[in-house]
């Protein structure tokens, strides 16, 4: 398949491009202008065929898609960090919502039957009552922050075009996914990064922690990107992606402590101790299993070990 | 009640401000900077207490609301013309979506228990199958253009804050409403404007028409703004507002021809003859009747007569 991957320099984008190339797909990844890339992103940038593209630029999007003529577009580009979206809603709307219109509008006009795999988020469900768990694709959405709002809005844009029939869309709602290469602003990566620095003697054996009780559905990014490709091949409508079970942040931390073998003092950070708005969430995998033939294969311990060793190498 | 009306210089805003003042409410209307107002808007501007405000400016919104301390905010400001929204989605997102966040964010922080009456649109339902008419508040939404998308997105923003409990919100989804003062870009107003110009000898007795078969739910703006105030007093959740029946564009035209008494030749415009995406739509009024004690009172013929005479005066 001839695939276009937007946001190919991101954490998930890098894993997806690698998987698609392994499967023999033809891939063009779009990346931010070099000046805006981090060192890690720069490195990923040069390992695959790529084009510079700001997806919020409608004309540039149109040119890129019209020239490359992809059979499938994996749209991953966007703001993925909740506090970043919270800090600037107008920019989030531009990058996470208007960009989706840019992509669909050109597919609609080209009438090439391009399929778009739109990456939304399990965050669109917001807070779900314990009695209504696990979440399924028909659980009502209730976004609670600018990030999840922008994801729900992006889905509305995609569904508009899907109804008009010129482009096919499959919407994926992955829950928390982790793996080597994830930015250390995200909790599991942050713990692993700090432990790796301690192992290298670059940080004292003390870890500041916030509320550890929130229970989330953590999966491995490499399982998630496999689902993206299966969705491009066989998917219709909306799919939740996750591990199918809830794990607390405390369990993530304890697994990482075990993996590191370090004896670390935990120091509660009062500023981050308030209870989470969403105490527990996890998804059903029934629809993804049944229609995509997908299920996660990588155990959480292996994922966390890989994340830890990624940071250990980075800190050497 | 101490009311803030955003978009007070608009067609509906003008009617709402008049109604609130008649009812003895205290009103501050927000208006665009004078340089951006049309002559008709300028005129409305100086007939009531007002402040200049661009609702897409977060700081200006915060200042205005914190100073005036309204008990209720009627949020009407925004892009209301479908082709205008279609032509510039990023701007539509800023004006119709980010502005709603600006308003709720300050209400949320002030914790004054301000109630927000959010004006969405019956357009959020998109195309509804004949078997599913009339539309009710639980009909699934399916927005089909940038305007209705932005309205659905604005609702998501409002619901986010409503769930957090610091501000109360009532969401209104009015269907097509017409009346004196409406811009002549809208179909009924456009017909009436052209007929008034013919009556004044300023246009030949020939009217270009597009597809006249689309059937819509037309109500009088003065009935609609009455519902806005009742919603501020007694409303919770979402309400559809309309006449409760469908009328074709052809019937609107024929009523206007009767009212004008002119013998006009109709000239089909091939460019506008394609069938409407939504052949027929009308709403149930059950919920608004039951919970707001509201129902429309003004007959369509009287509305159209008032619109015609408004333009007759303007063309004199």
**Overall average residue pLDDT of chain A:** 94
CATH superfamily (homologous) name of the largest domain in chain A: NAD(P)-binding Rossmann-like Domain
Using the 3D structure, state the CATH architecture of the largest domain in chain A. 3-Layer(aba) Sandwich
Largest sheet of chain A: 7 strands, parallel
Please count the beta strands of chain A (DSSP E, at least 2 residues each): 13
Biggest chain pair interface: A-B, 24 and 24 residues
What is the CA-atom radius of gyration of chain A, in angstroms?
19 Å
Q: Please report which band the strand proportion of chain A falls in: under 5%, 5-15%, 15-25%, 25-35%, 35-45% or over 45%.
A: 15-25%
CATH class of the largest domain in chain A: Alpha Beta
Task: Report strand order across the widest sheet of chain A.
Answer: 3-2-1-4-5-6-11
Gross morphology of chain A is globular
N- to C-terminal distance of chain A: 39 Å
**Within the CATH hierarchy, at the fold level, what is the topology of the largest domain in chain A?**
Rossmann fold
> How would you describe the oligomerization state of the chains in this entry?
homodimer
């Amino acid at each position: 398949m001839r695939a276009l991957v937007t946001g190919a320099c991101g954490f998930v984008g890098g894993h997806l491009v690698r998987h698609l190339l392994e499967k023999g797909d033809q891939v063009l990844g779009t990346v931010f202008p070099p000046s805006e890339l981090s060192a890690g992103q720069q490195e990923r940038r040069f390992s695959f065929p790529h084009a510079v593209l700001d997806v919020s630029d409608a004309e540039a999007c149109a040119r890129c898609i019209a020239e490359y003529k992809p059979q499938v577009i994996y749209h991953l580009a966007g703001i993925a960090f909740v506090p970043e979206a919270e800090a600037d809603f107008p920019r989030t709307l531009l990058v996470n919502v208007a960009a989706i219109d840019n992509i669909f509008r050109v597919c609609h006009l080209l009438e090439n039957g391009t399929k778009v795999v739109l990456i939304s988020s399990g965050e669109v469900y917001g807070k779900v009552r314990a009695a209504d768990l696990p979440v399924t694709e028909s659980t009502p959405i209730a976004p609670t922050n600018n990030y999840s709002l922008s994801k729900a809005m992006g889905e509305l844009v995609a569904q508009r075009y899907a109804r008009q029939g010129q482009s096919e869309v499959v919407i994926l709602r992955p829950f928390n996914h982790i793996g080597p290469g994830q930015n250390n602003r995200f909790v599991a990566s942050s713990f692993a990064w700090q432990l790796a620095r301690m192992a290298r003697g670059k940080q004292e054996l003390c870890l500041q922690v916030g509320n550890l009780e929130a229970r989330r559905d953590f999966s491995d990014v490499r399982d998630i990107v496999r689902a993206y490709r299966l969705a491009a091949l066989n998917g219709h409508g909306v799919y939740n992606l996750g591990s199918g079970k809830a794990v607390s942040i405390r369990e993530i931390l304890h697994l990482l402590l075990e993996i590191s073998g370090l004896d670390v003092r935990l120091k509660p950070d009062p500023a981050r101790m308030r209870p989470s708005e969403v105490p527990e969430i996890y998804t059903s995998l029934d629809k993804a299993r049944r229609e995509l033939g997908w299920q996660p294969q990588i155990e959480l311990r292996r994922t966390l070990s890989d994340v830890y060793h990624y940071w250990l190498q980075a800190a050497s």
